[in-house]
Amino acid sequence: MGKIKIIIPRILITILVIFASIQAYAASCPIKIGGLAPLSAPGSVTGGEAMREAMLLAERDINAKGGVLGCDIEVVITDTEGLPEKAAAMMQKLITQDGVVAVGGGYHSSVGVASKDVANSRGIPVVFAETWNDTITGDMQKYIFRIAPLSSWASGVIWKFAAQAPGVKYVAIVTENTDYGIPAAKECVEGLGSKGISSITFGVDIGTQDFAGIVERVKAERPDYTIVLLTGEAGFNYAQQAADAGFGPQDTMFHANQAGLESKAWWENVPDGNLAFMARIGVPETMYSDSALKLAADYKANTGKDGIESYALEAYDSIGVIAQAINEAGSTDGDAIVTALENISHDGVLGRIYFPYGSKKSPSEDGKGSEWWHQWPDPAITMVQYQKEGEPSNTMTIVYPEVYKTGDPIYVD
Amino acid sequence: MNRQQTLWLISILIIVFFMTFPFLYGRRDYDYIMHVLITGFFYAILASSWSMLSGYAGQFSFGHMAFMGLGAYGTALFSHYFYLSPVPTNLCTEFEIGDQYFIIKDAIGVTSSTLDQDCLTKALAIWDGSVQITPMPIWIGILLGSMLGGIFGLLIGMLVLRLRAAYLALFTLGFSEILRATISAEIKITRGQAGIELPYLFENGITVFGHEFSKTDKIPPYYVMFFLLLACMAVLAWLAKSRFGLFVRALREDEDAAAALGVNTVRFKIMVFVITSTMAALAGAVQAHYVGIITPNNLMILQMSLVVAMAVIGGLENFAAAAIGAIIIQFLLELLRESFVIGGVEVDMTLWRLVFFGALLMITLRFYRNGLITPIIEFFTRAHVASETVEKRMDPKTEDVEEEGITG
Amino acid sequence: MEYSAIFWWTTLWLLFWGVVGSIFTRRVYLRKDLDTSNSILVGSMVGAAFGPVGLVPLWLKTPEISRKLILIPAFVSVGIMMIAFALADPQNNCVSNGSFVASQITNGLIIGIIYGLMALGLTLIFSILGIVSFSHGEFYMIGGMLVYYSTVVWFPGLHPVIGVLIACLLTFMLGAVFERLFLTPLYDGRIDRPVEYGILITFGLAFTLQYFVQAVGGANPVKAKRFFDFPRIRLPDKADPWLIKTSRGNMELFDTISISNPRFVASVISIMVLLGLLYFLYRTWTGKALRAVSQDRDAATIAGINPHHMNMLAFAMGGMIAALSGATLVQAFSWLPQVGMIPAMRSFVIVVLGGLGSLPGAFIGGIIIGLVEAAGTGCVPDPQKASSYIPAYGMIVLTLTLLLRPTGLLGRRFASGTHGKL
Amino acid sequence: MIELEVKNLNKRFGGLHVLKDVSFGIKGAELIGLIGPNGAGKTTLTNILDGAIKPNSGTVYLNGQRIDQLPPFEVAKVGLGRTFQVTRSFRRMTVLENLYVPALAKHVAADKTEVTNKALEVLDFLTMRHLRNEYAQALSGGQQKLLELGRLLMLDPDIIILDEPFAGVHPTLMEIIYEYIRKVNEEGKAIVLISHQMDSIFSLCKRLLVLNYGDLIADGAPEDVKNDPVVVDAYLGKDDDENSDTTNNEKQNSA
Predict the structure, then answer these.
(1) Where are the domains of chain A?
(2) Fold of domain A152-285+382-404
(3) Across the interface, do A207 and C258 touch by the CB < 8 Å criterion?
(4) The domain over range C97-230+254-404 is classified in CATH as 3.10.450
(5) N or C terminus: which one in chain B shows less Cβ crowding within 10 Å?
């Protein structure tokens, strides 16, 4: 009978002990840098795992070169699940529990939108790697940087390529109802419209699995070109189901989401994915710098993949640029890092990374929109195409723009 | 000191512990722990009100998260679309009220900053800082959100009067799916899966006892949520002790018999729906203002299963047990993210914690049907019963009617 | 889009008279001292179809309620809705494009057959155990996962059909073990609220399974190869293949209807399994015993059937059927640990629509839901929203069913056991 | 003065005419037996009187108030209480709580101590005081039956309908129930006793109602009824087993 009398205080004590047992933040070494990646659904796990791998490689490489400020760095990777509210909480956790001094990575736009405020209000610099939505840098927050392309800009490549393809009069856009998909679709509609090409937009939920009805609708519209702005497995599902319905990449000009650059997953999920176009960030592998080649080799060895995806490169660089900024700032203070970042010139795997607009120079001085704030202006975006079945993504034919072109696009009639 | 008093003492100790915790705890992860606790209180409100609905009244509803979402979206939409301004914008829909203009922002959905902007942003750009607009006080939004939850609770309660058990569960599941689908489809108004942002609970900071707290400080929302939890618990305790608790339990046990004994089953069934869904909506509204964003994913069935599991593991038929269970489980779920190695195999706890949690749920259901916390509480409140009964049975003078060959 | 007012006003008109009909018809029948079962359904249908013109004679004559009296107004109401829709949006593909409509209907039918099979498992479990299994979707997910793992990861090159058999076997065992470990307390009255216990414990299983698969297999989308490729057929001839034209993954009939290979194969397997199941239930001793238990547990016990074995068999078979649907569909969809949710919800809708516990009802319900969803995704004019509402279409059917005819289309009045009570 | 008046009650389920023009009345503290073969409509009649199902036609007045269209809880407040054929206690509530339900439901402003005292009195009468804080599910079947009777005392209705109170009951318990019925009747309440046990009916009741497939075929003193050839023909000659309850089914039909 007396047992429970003892048990209850014990439970309370246990709870207290759990409180206490959480390791207090160790003073300075190792220096912790946060890494955001979607590692479980509804996030795009394929992308998330690639980014995690790349960020861990970045950690290894930086430490091999002697680390930062005499310390090793540690990249603390956290799962955003692709959900905004989770991302905000995880950003909170990174900053207050893990004690990170800066954060890199980030895949889904909604994650970027939701988590940037948390970091900004706590004075922790963030370099987003793969979040395209313009508003992320658009509200000109002090601590927010981005090396991913702007959505409006990436969409520009997509629609410009579609517009120059032969005989395109009517385009179907299938987009997810998120703050990546909707603005991107809108950009495409407006861009295509400016070229006199009409378009129709179909919206779907990110969790959708069965696209049969939508595919039929798209088919019935008889568009000349399909643009699919669905991330993760929804993009795979749509492409394969469209192919099964006789309206896939082999039947029409078909732009698939860049998740397809993960060639193993692409060919497993979309066996009929031949001739799909995709947008790829970064220069082609033949034009890689030495550091990029080395990274690609390590990455392939670690993952068994045929090539390195653009978002992995971006994730790698987001950590690298932070590490250099900390070194140059000479401290882990957020404001110092921001100052260093605004002045940085980092030789990353994507190219030379710098941020021309910020507190020194407002984007409006060059007549640019506020979304160019803390934005790397140079990421190369190319259109690539799977021209052989089962082809790995690194040998994909670059079909656009002219500068990088390695082959002519195959347009399906 | 008897057991009842011990229980009181422990409850007071727990309350005092949580009251003083923000001042006692001082590690580096302070903010994060506070966040976990605030979320824990939020789930505690949901779990305890759900235990009132399903454990006490026997109305097995899977729509509790939908009511939470109604509250959150109610206040989110309110604060997103309505403003007061001293000068007319001439762009938005606006009404003159006294010397102020009541402004309704137009719905433009999800955009990228290079695309369309809403009328208010345009107007602000024109004014260029010369005019101060006032957002609506958030407490009105929270109030409206809770009322929205209550009204829907009333409607659903009336619709499901005739449904029992499995049908009720399916219907409420359907209701929450419809709501989720609607919110994610009506992008123009709700911003769909991008989620809608809300002002923080104390957007302009708050000064208490001379100490200034900024909008992201954890202490003010901690106390707001904690007192909300206490208030909900007080209401639930009062309900459970009053004839309301008696009657809803009677109708859970046997609706026909309760009605035959004069209990207005219809009224109490609807009442319990209204009360608990208002609570869920209230918690949702406050939590949304605390987190700063609400998305339709919060309404997903997985979130609901979390609440169900918390209530079941704590103790479905005791709202206090459900609340304590929710706080403990939320705490453990967050803190058990650390991976560990067993026999050379690394167990990634970010993934496995939920597997263990599910297994715990099943084992609790199978072997500890009253939950893990309820027996502890019952030990203090009901310990005298067994001894009384035994004592009486031992007494040879009493001629008990003992059963043999009685069917029943 | 100006014309859409026609559609909304018609809907409102139908809704109004439907509600009026459902409320007052029952009262009229009650007052006239007549059988009131189904009077709500008849009232609402007649009200919706003919408005006051239909209701007044109905109230005056109060004919005996027959199947005809329900079905004719129901079809008329659907017809009115269709006409209103066509008038409101004449440009819509559903109105103007015959081959589109044919394709959508075919797709709806095919996927409906597969849904029906899955729901069959749920209804089988319900009819024997009296509980609604909330882990049905997870069995579906595991079925697909097992096919993927057995044919791609564990034994690469294994024919997928063998993978399906493996998946069936393993999920059958999983179901049996779970039933033995967690559902046995249901039968001996140790549990006060068996329905709720059933819901919660299967809910717990669903939760555990989903995260278990995610922890073990990761959350990458996976997919099995197509089970069979279509042979290349062009009929009547190469130049003019108007009758049938196939490619590896697609079959086109009459130049209009296109059917995707994975769905076609999945539905053929579903039909074969269904026939096998019918044979099992109606021709074998065990099957007959199962049906006997579902109809009258006590009588079956007296007749020498061990109901406990039947419980185990029913739960394991129900789970296996769900897994089989998953196993056949893993070639059509990318597969994740979360994929079970939507089909599970759909199965709930189907079994309620068809009548909880009714096997043919589940199948008919499946086809109806397949068609409703196809119509929803195909016809809702705003392409931005059409597919976002997919989960809602089924739920609207569920709500209507529960309001108008809670026993479903072919539901028995009283499902087995006391806890089958509404 | 207690006065129940049942006039021309009719009830159909689908094609089944369960009650055909049933009329009778109760005046004062009568003790009436209601008998009839299985499916005679006894339980349906009870359900209609109690408000659980509505008649197709006919009226029921209790103490001058029409009750046939009222829901059960209103009927209970007007003054009619009933037990169920299968014991229906609130299993996971304590014995005292079981007793509080009717008392608090009937008197909105009831004083808690007063109610408790009354409940304890009732428990004393039922020799169950020591079990007051036990959950009802911990009680034996017979004790649960007593508890159900106790709840009726707490409701304090004018008319009590007891549906098969002796079914499968142990003889010791039978004595208590006998005593209960006599005592309650002496306190001025009318009791309608439905039972298949003729001995009990004949030893307790002063008046018998006989239902036969919806028809009220006899109404009178037990001796007269016993010798009524119609009744003998229809019922008394053969005695069936326990019949199966149709309450639930009927409700489904009416829904």
Answers:
(1) 27-151+291-380, 152-285+382-404
(2) Rossmann fold (3.40.50)
(3) no
(4) no
(5) N
pLDDT number for residue B390:
64
Which residues make Cβ contacts (< 8 Å) with residue C61, sequence separation at least 6?
none
From chain A, the residues in CB contact with C104 under 8 A are: 213, 216
C415, C126 Cβ separation under 8 angstroms = yes
pLDDT band at C355 (very low <50, low <70, confident <90, very high): confident
Spatial CB neighbours of B408, under 8 Å, sequence gap ≥ 6: D87, D140, D141, D142, D144, D145, D168
Q: Between chains, do A216 and C378 touch, taking CB under 8 Å as contact?
A: yes
Q: Please say whether the structural domain A27-151+291-380 has been given the CATH code 3.40.50.2300.
A: yes
ipTM: 0.84
Closest A-chain CA to C107 = A212
Indicate the pairing of strand A126-128 with strand A144-146.
parallel
Query: What is the token pair recorded at A285?
Result: 């592998």
Sequence ranges of the domains in chain C: 4-90, 97-230+254-404
Indicate whether this model's pTM tops 0.95: no
What residues contact C27, with CB distance under 8 A and at least 6 apart? none
Closest CA to C141 of A184, A41, D36: A41
* Nearest chain D Cα distance for residue C414, angstroms: 7
Q: At residue B392, what is the residue type?
A: K
Q: Which two tokens stand for residue B154?
A: 């009333």
CB pair distance less than 8 Å for B170 and C352: yes
For residue B75 the two structure tokens come to 């206040």
**Which C residues in the span 67-96 are in contact with A, Cβ-Cβ below 8 Å?**
93
CB contact under 8 A, B111 and A183: yes
B107 burial (CB, 10 Å; 0-12 / 13-18 / 19+) is: middle
Interface of B with D in 306-345 (CB under 8 A): 317
Provide mean pLDDT across the span B267-295: 90
Which sign does the torsion angle of CA C98, C99, C102, C104 carry? negative
Residue whose pair of structure tokens reads 């939320």 in the numeric block: B330
Torsion angle of the four alpha carbons A211, A214, A216, A221, in this order, in degrees rounded to the nearest 10: -150
Q: Report the DSSP pairing between strands A198-204 and A170-176.
A: parallel
Q: Across the interface, which of B54, B163, B354 has its CB nearest the CB of C422?
A: B163
Amino acid found at B187: I
